[in-house]
Design brief:
The complex is a heterodimer of chains A (about 475) and B (about 100). Chain A is an all-alpha fold. Chain A has helices at about 5-25, 35-40, 45-55, 60-70, 75-80, 85-105, 110-115, 120-150, 160-210, 210-220, 240-250, 255-260, 265-280, 285-295, 300-305, 310-315, 320-360, 365-385, 395-405, 410-415, 420-440, 450-470, 475-485. Chain A has a single domain (about 5-405), classed as Sodium/glucose cotransporter. In chain A, about 75% of the residues lie in helices and about 0% in strands. In chain A, helix 1 runs parallel beside helix 17, helix 4 (about 60-70) packs across helix 8 and helix 8 packs parallel to helix 21. Chain A is globular and about 65 Å long. Chain B is mostly helical and about 100 residues long. Chain B is built from two helices and no strands. Chain B has helices spanning about 20-40, 60-95. The two termini of chain B are about 30 Å apart. The chains are: A mainly alpha (about 475), B mainly alpha (about 100).
C-alpha cells in the first residue's frame, strides 16, 4: 500500500470520529435558540475549558506558529506574551457577562450591545464588521487544513479537496448540533492536538539537535539576531512587537464567538476554566520548537511559505512512518477544526441574531433557528471560496484582530462606565474601524510601525469618550443593571 | 448614587459592585496592579532587559523563558486570587 494512503486513512479515521462525536452531542436536544446557541447555559468545567482552549488555539498555532518561529524567530514571542492577559481580563469580565446574559436571556455579543446601549443599529454595524473578521479567521483554518491534506498525502489530495472534506465535516456537525457539537468535538480535538504537539515537538528537537539547548546555541551562533527583537538580523522591532501584544491582549476575548462562551455556563465555571487554561496553553512551547528546529535544517527557497515547515520537516527531513504522519496530520487538523467549528457557529449566529433579527424583528424562533443553520452553510461556502486568495496564516489572523479590537471599548465601557452612550459607542466603533481599514487597504506605513488596529483603537476611545460626554446619558436605572451586576 | 427625584444617576467609572468592601477593593486593586506590571514587563522597552539568548533555562533561550515566566506568574496570581475569593465566600457563608 502506498505510504500516503496510510496517512490519509489515519486522518480520515480522526475526521469520522470527530463527526460522530459532534453529531452525537446534539442528539435528543430540543430545537430552541437557547439550546443551539448557549447549550442552555449549563456546560461543565471540562467542556468549557476545551471549548475555550480549542477555539483559542487554532491552525495559526500548529502551522503559523512554527512558520513564524522558522521565518521570523523571536517575533513569535508575542504569542507567548499574550497567552494570559486576555484570560486575566476575562476572569474580570466573563462572570459578569455570564450573569447579565442569564438575567436578560442574551445569546450573542450583539444582544449585549443592543441591551446595554438600547440600540438596534449597533449590533448590526458590529455584526457586519465581525462577519468580515470571522471570514478572515475561517480562511486561516481552511488554509491550514488544505496545506495539511496536500502535504501529508504527498500531494495526492489537492488543496481544494482537503479543505472541503475537513471543513465540510465541521459545517455538518455545527449545523446539526450547534454549540454542543462544537464543544464536545473540541474536547476530542483538544486532547489530540496537545498530545501530538508535545510528541512531535520534542521528537524533532531531540532527533535533530539532541535537545533544545544545543538547538538554540546552534541557531544563535549561525543567526545571532534571529531569536531576538530589534537587533541586527531580527525580523521585528520593539514597537511592532509591543503593539501586537497590546492589540491581541485587549482584542483576544472580544471575538464574538469567544465572548459568547460566557453564556454557556456560570461565572464560577468560567473562573475555574481560566485557572486550568495554562495547563493546556503550555503546549505552545513544543509547537514553537518545531519551527525553531527547522531554521538550520531547511532553506527558505526550498520551503516556500514558512507555514509549511511542520509538514516539510516530518515528511522530508526526519521521515517518520506514514502512520505517525497521519497522527500528526490528525493533531493539526484537530487544531484547525476546533477553531473552525466555534467560529462558523459564531458567524451563523451573529448573522441571524445580530444582523437579520435586528433589521426584521418579527421572525419566529423556529424560523430564526432554521436561518442560523442556513447561514452557517453559506458563511462556510463563502469562506471556502475566499480561502486560497491571501497571505500567511498569522498575517491573516492579525488582520482580523484589527477589526475585532474595536469592539473592546464598547464592551468595557458598557460594563464599567455609566456615562457611555449609544452615540459614543457607534461613533467610536465606526471611527476606529475606518482608521484600521484605511491603513490595511492603503498599505501606507503606520507611525512608528504600530499596528493599524491599535491606532484605530486609540481613535475609537477618543470618539467614544468625547461623543458620550456630548450626548444625553442613559437612565441610571438602566445602566445600574450592567454596572453593578 | 440616588438622584434628586429618587432615580439612580448615571455614574462614572464603576469597577466594583456596590457591596464590595473597602478591604476587598484593596485586594483586587493589588492583584490588578500585579497583572498590569506583568503585562508591561512583557512589552518593550521593559522587555529589553531580557532580549538575549543566554542563559538558556529549562530548554528555552532567555527571551523565550522570560515571556513564558511572565505568563506563568500571571497564572499563579490568578490561582491565588481565586483561592482568596473562595475562602472569603466560605467565611461569609459560615458567618
Amino acid at each position: 500500500m502506498n505510504p500516503w494512503i496510510i496517512s490519509l486513512v489515519v486522518m480520515l479515521a480522526y475526521l469520522v470520529i470527530a463527526l460522530y462525536i459532534g453529531m452525537l452531542a446534539g442528539k435528543g436536544r430540543d430545537a430552541s435558540l437557547e439550546e443551539y446557541v448557549t447549550g442552555k447555559r449549563k456546560f461543565g468545567i471540562v467542556v468549557v475549558l476545551f471549548l475555550t482552549a480549542g477555539t483559542w488555539f487554532s491552525s495559526f498555532l500548529f502551522l503559523g506558529g512554527p512558520g513564524w518561529a522558522y521565518s521570523k524567530g523571536g517575533a513569535l514571542m508575542f504569542i507567548t506574551a499574550y497567552v494570559m492577559p486576555p484570560f486575566i481580563l476575562w476572569y474580570w469580565i466573563g462572570p459578569k457577562v455570564s450573569r447579565i446574559g442569564a438575567k436578560l436571556k442574551l445569546l450573542t455579543q450583539g444582544d449585549f450591545l443592543k441591551e446595554r446601549y438600547k440600540s438596534r443599529a449597533l449590533p448590526v454595524i458590529v455584526g457586519f464588521i465581525s462577519m468580515i473578521a470571522f471570514i478572515q479567521y475561517i480562511c486561516v483554518q481552511l488554509k491550514g487544513t488544505a496545506y495539511l491534506f496536500n502535504v501529508f498525502t504527498a500531494g495526492n489530495i489537492p488543496m481544494w479537496l482537503g479543505a472541503l472534506i475537513a471543513y465540510g465535516i465541521v459545517v455538518i456537525y455545527v449545523t446539526s448540533s450547534g454549540v454542543r457539537g462544537a464543544a464536545w468535538s473540541d474536547v476530542l480535538q483538544g486532547i489530540i492536538m496537545i498530545v501530538v504537539a508535545w510528541g512531535i515537538g520534542m521528537y524533532l528537537v531531540y532527533h535533530l539537535y539532541d535537545g533544545p539547548v544545543n538547538m538554540f546555541n546552534a541557531i544563535s551562533k549561525a543567526k545571532p539576531g534571529h531569536l531576538l527583537i530589534g537587533k541586527e538580523g531580527s525580523h521585528m522591532g520593539g514597537a511592532t512587537f509591543s503593539s501586537l501584544i497590546i492589540l491581541s491582549s485587549i482584542g483576544g476575548m472580544m471575538w464574538p464567538h469567544l465572548f459568547m462562551k460566557a453564556y454557556v455556563t456560570d461565572g464560577r465555571t468560567i473562573k475555574k476554566s481560566i485557572l486550568l487554561f495554562p495547563i493546556i496553553a503550555i503546549f505552545i512551547i513544543p509547537v514553537f520548537f518545531i519551527g525553531f528546529a527547522g531554521i538550520l535544517k531547511v532553506t527558505p527557497d526550498v520551503l516556500g511559505a514558512g507555514d509549511r515547515i511542520l509538514p516539510y520537516l516530518i515528511y522530508n527531513v526526519v521521515k517518520v512512518s506514514p502512520f505517525i504522519i497521519g497522527i500528526v496530520g490528525a493533531g493539526a487538523l484537530a487544531a484547525s477544526m476546533s477553531s473552525a467549528d466555534a467560529i462558523t457557529h459564531g458567524a451563523g449566529t451573529v448573522f441571524v441574531q445580530d444582523i437579520m433579527h435586528n433589521i426584521k424583528m418579527d421572525i419566529p424562533e423556529k424560523r430564526l433557528l432554521l436561518y442560523m443553520r442556513i447561514a452557517i452553510c453559506v458563511v462556510g461556502a463563502i469562506a471556502y471560496l475566499l480561502t486560497f486568495l491571501s497571505q500567511t496564516l498569522v498575517g491573516l489572523l492579525i488582520g482580523g484582530y484589527g477589526f475585532i479590537v474595536q469592539i473592546a471599548p464598547l464592551i468595557y465601557g458598557g460594563l464599567f462606565w455609566g456615562r457611555a452612550t449609544k452615540e459614543g459607542a457607534i461613533s467610536g466603533f465606526v471611527a476606529g474601524t475606518a482608521i484600521n481599514i484605511f491603513f490595511v487597504f492603503s498599505h501606507l506605513p503606520t507611525p512608528f510601525g504600530i499596528n493599524s488596529g491599535l491606532l484605530g483603537l486609540m481613535v475609537n476611545i477618543v470618539f467614544f469618550v468625547v461623543v458620550s460626554y456630548l450626548t444625553k446619558p442613559q437612565s441610571g436605572e438602566h445602566v445600574k443593571q450592567f454596572l453593578d451586576e | 448614587m440616588e438622584g434628586k427625584n429618587g432615580n439612580l444617576k448615571p455614574r462614572g467609572l464603576v469597577l466594583f459592585r456596590e457591596k464590595t468592601t473597602a478591604h476587598d477593593r484593596k485586594v483586587y486593586i493589588g492583584f490588578a496592579i500585579f497583572f498590569v506590571l506583568c503585562w508591561i514587563a512583557a512589552i518593550f522597552p521593559v522587555a529589553e532587559i531580557a532580549n538575549k539568548v543566554h542563559p538558556i533555562i529549562f530548554g528555552m533561550y532567555f527571551f523565550f523563558f522570560y515571556e513564558v515566566m511572565l505568563a506563568g506568574l500571571q497564572a499563579v496570581a490568578a490561582f491565588c486570587l481565586f483561592r482568596w475569593e473562595y475562602r472569603k465566600k466560605s467565611m461569609e457563608v459560615q458567618s
